[in-house]
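Sorry, can you check?
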Amino acid sequence: MKPLRIVFMGTPEFAVGILDAIVKENKYEVVGVITAPDKPAGRGQKIKYSAVKEYALEKGLHLLQPTNLKNEEFLTELRALQANLQVVVAFRMLPAVVWQMPELGTFNLHASLLPEYRGAAPINWAIINGETQTGVTTFFIDDKIDTGAMIMSKSIAITSDENAGELHDKLMHLGCETVVETLGLIANDKVVTQIQQDSPEIKTAYKLDRENCKIDFTKGLEVCYNLIRGLSPYPAAYCFFKDGEQEWNVKIYEALKVEESHTYKVGQVLATKKEIKIAVAGGFLNLKSLQFPGKKRMTAQELLNGMSFTTEAIVF
């Protein structure tokens, strides 16, 4: 078995689970961790560390936070670590001078069954598009995004009511297993890669933005329901509530899907003292958790304790 000297690259919570699994293996040496630079966050603009930095500091791992991955000073520091393998999880695109550096290559863990859902938000888009299965893939990085030769993949079912946060946690655990097994294959020189096959039907995990996070109630019950759970808890689907002269930009975190024939106009709000339902083609979205501007996230019933809507209320 080859001794592995690993540099790990990642930033969010998802990456922490994978790094922790590698550290706990005790078979391999993590000689360095690379994560995003600190940045101000929140109303107070306090400096916020990435989840990976917090973990690296806690474990006493050698940490680098380059702003420019082509900077000579950073590249000199990276070479000095003498890693023979790099592992990347939820980081940014690497220049060739970085991913080509280690003798055994650089592999990435991606939260989809490649070649499906290459891109920034694979967990969200799998749910938004109503998939019933997804998974994780390890692959050697090349000069494009998520296109390299695949090492391993493992699949998992998506239940009809789970949201992106729940699927994230399941995929993180699956990713831990897959990365540890991939390391074993590399250490024992047993890797057999598979080239990704491109086709026009491959779905893309586009970056989430204002436009694709907005609910279009004209698209029907299933599409709206999947968008809400696919964006929950972050960044959250949103829409506009309008009641008379008042209008609010509202985040929707959770809804129940009620299949039922009706004659209400699409987008009509049906509110009682206990529930808020939105009429859409094919039924209703029964809103369970939402957030109005200036308020915290709350249940529909909590919101209705201090707020009411007329029969003219609509969403769009």
User: Anything to note?
Assistant: The CA atoms of residues 117 and 204 lie 4 Å apart. The mean pLDDT is 96. The longest strand covers residues 246-259.
